[in-house]
Fold this protein.
Amino acid sequence: MNGFRAAAVGVLAVALAWAQGAAAQEKDNQAVEAAKQLGFRTCAKTVSVLTDFIYGKDSFSYVNTYNTKEIDRHALLMLTSKPYSDGTSVAAVTTSPTPAGTCDGTFVQVFMIAESCPKLRDTTFQQWKYYMDLGGVALYEDPSSDSLVVALASVPSGCLIVKTGMIFNMP
């Protein structure tokens, strides 16, 4: 298994370009296909973009929470996890249809790594721009996206990484 650090830095713009047809159309991952089987179709591509951004084409575990009466008219929450050689990533992906007929999506990914936050900042996240202090937790913005932020929180055994992102108006 690859380490999380290798997967931690990605560019949401690449995922967005893919979603807008810049890359060849591929079959959705197993989690998205399962949601589509339940009737979740309008925002399936948004879930696919976000889960592909988080995990690439790797497999991951998931569980969906959704409106059982009108799944395609409401938000879907997909809780996911994937083991790496240096720990397990857990992510929540949410997407919802908008009144305009498009979809908005968000994700929150959490990972604990046995390195100090300053070391991660100087290596893995060195290109990320300091954004603000959130109650003693440093936040950094992805230099290639205005909607992707990482929080690096020091814990006794290393650094807790909380990565968040949003996409809007997905077709």
In short: The first strand starts at residue 61 and ends at 66. The chain has five helices and eight strands. The chain has one domain: 4-170. The helical segments are 4-8, 12-22, 30-37, 44-55, 117-122.
